[in-house]
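We were asked to recover a plausible sequence for a given structure. The inputs and outputs are reproduced exactly as logged, with field labels preserved.

PROBLEM: sequence recovery
POSITIONS: 131
GIVEN STRUCTURE:
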């Protein structure tokens, strides 16, 4: 069997700068601005993962963002400590919640937020005694 390791998530945005600023302001992402093939590029570091943001021009042939739930990639999740505290802080910042904190099963507490372009992001807290 091959050894697969997580590498990155790639987002497409009509406004990469606004998308990056949202992730920086709301979730504390580190924004990395570079040049690639003579064009500006914006990447994020968040939760130990790389998030790449590709620009979408009005003339690009891309579909509009889907409305959840849908088939395919549904969401990505970030582990947090003290979910209720994180939720309270994000609400103060104006983050839109699509699911309030709840316990779907013993040992896990989850909540969902909506990011730029309708990106669905799960915030979860795990009780180590159930892992």
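RECOVERED SEQUENCE:
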């Amino acid at each position: 069997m091959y050894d697969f390791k997580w590498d990155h998530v790639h987002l497409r945005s009509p406004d990469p700068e606004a998308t990056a600023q949202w992730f920086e302001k709301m979730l504390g992402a580190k924004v990395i601005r570079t040049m690639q093939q003579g064009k500006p590029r914006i990447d994020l570091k968040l939760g130990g993962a790389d998030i790449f943001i590709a620009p979408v021009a009005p003339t690009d042939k891309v579909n509009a963002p889907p409305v959840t739930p849908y088939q395919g990639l549904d969401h990505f999740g970030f582990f947090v400590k003290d979910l209720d505290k994180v939720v309270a802080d994000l609400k103060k910042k104006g983050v839109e919640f699509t699911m309030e904190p709840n316990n779907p099963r013993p040992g896990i507490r989850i909540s969902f937020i909506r990011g730029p372009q309708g990106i669905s992001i799960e915030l979860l807290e795990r009780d180590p005694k159930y892992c």
